[in-house]
Design brief:
The chain has nine helices and six strands. The chain is an alpha/beta fold. It has a six-stranded parallel sheet with strand order 3-4-2-1-5-6, sandwiched between helices. Strand 3, helix 5 and strand 4 form a beta-alpha-beta unit. Helix 4 runs parallel beside helix 5. The C terminus is likely disordered. The structure holds 3-methylbut-3-enyl trihydrogen diphosphate (2 copies) and magnesium ion.
Length: 258
């Protein structure tokens, strides 16, 4: 945001700001390695980048920001690194919850809770409870999250309802399945940004990303800043989303993209 600019000014400058952006915050380890630093230093700097990103998301007027901060597959990392990442999540909530709340941010956490330690579970519950009524921006933290596991759990929930006689198999449709995902009630992400140059989803929001636009940035996550965010939003607003339809010109009988 240029200094003195209001959210409305940004919206004018970047028409078509998406309601929901998902970010795969990747490249902390490589950022550190390039500087001869331990991986944890990359994760610490990544947390700084996240703070700035949340502030920018508020200024840009986004409704939802989902950040992928720990995947179910990340348990396969060395135990020291897993412990560091758990420690950073705790630090983020302890240090930032007050400010997030003051800024009107509603925190929601998606992913498995039962395999997290009780102190982390308590912090996540506290963050959600404190900020439940906020409306400025919903910050969805995907922690111990896996899209396949989320879809499997939704299928299990539907199967249990069928077994209990509350639902007929023929009634199962996309809406009912969506409503049993962790993201129930949240609109699908319009844009998914991944840093670090990797071009994959790594088990992030696979169901919800069916019609998302993707922007892959070569920079590592600790280097992601307001300017990079704006670049991604500008690229998004230049895209034409068709959702399976023909283009606007095609409908007018002029050009038709195939
Ligand atoms: C992203 O950075 C943070 C997490 C996955 C938790 P990485 O730690 O994956 O960094 P690279 O990909 O090894 O550089
Ligand atoms: C995805 O990054 C998970 C997060 C950013 C939290 P990874 O670094 O774990 O993904 P892969 O292993 O390169 O696919
Ligand atoms: Mg990575």
């Amino acid at each position: 945001m240029i200094s003195g600019e209001t959210t409305l000014d940004v919206r004018r400058r970047l028409p078509g700001v998406p309601a929901h952006v998902g970010i795969i915050m990747d490249g902390n380890g490589r950022w550190a390695a390039m500087r001869g630093l331990p991986r944890i230093e990359g994760h610490r700097r990544g947390l700084e980048a996240l703070r700035g990103t949340v502030r920018a998301a508020i200024d840009f007027g986004l409704d939802y920001l989902t950040v992928y901060s720990f995947s179910m597959e990340n348990w396969n990392r060395p135990i020291e690194e897993v412990a560091d990442l758990m420690g950073l999540l705790k630090r983020f909530i302890r240090n930032d919850l007050g400010e997030l709340h003051k800024s009107g941010v509603k925190v929601k956490v998606i992913g498995g809770r039962t395999d997290l330690k009780p102190d982390i579970r308590a912090l996540l519950d506290e963050a959600e409870d404190l900020t439940r009524s906020n409306t400025r921006l919903t910050l969805i933290v995907a922690f111990n999250y896996g899209s396949r596991q989320e879809i499997a759990a939704a299928a299990r929930a539907l199967a249990e309802e069928v077994a209990a006689g509350r639902l007929k198999p023929s009634e199962i449709n996309e809406t009912l399945l969506s409503q049993r995902l962790d993201t129930a009630g949240v609109p699908d992400p319009d844009l998914i940004i991944r840093t670090s140059g990797e071009k994959r989803l790594s088990n992030f929001l696979m169901w919800q990303a069916a019609y998302s636009e993707f922007v892959f940035l070569p920079m590592h996550w600790p280097d992601f800043d307001r300017h990079a965010f704006e670049t991604a939003l500008a690229e998004f607003s230049a895209r034409e989303r068709r959702f399976g339809r023909v283009t606007a010109q095609g409908q007018n009988g002029k050009t038709k993209k195939i």
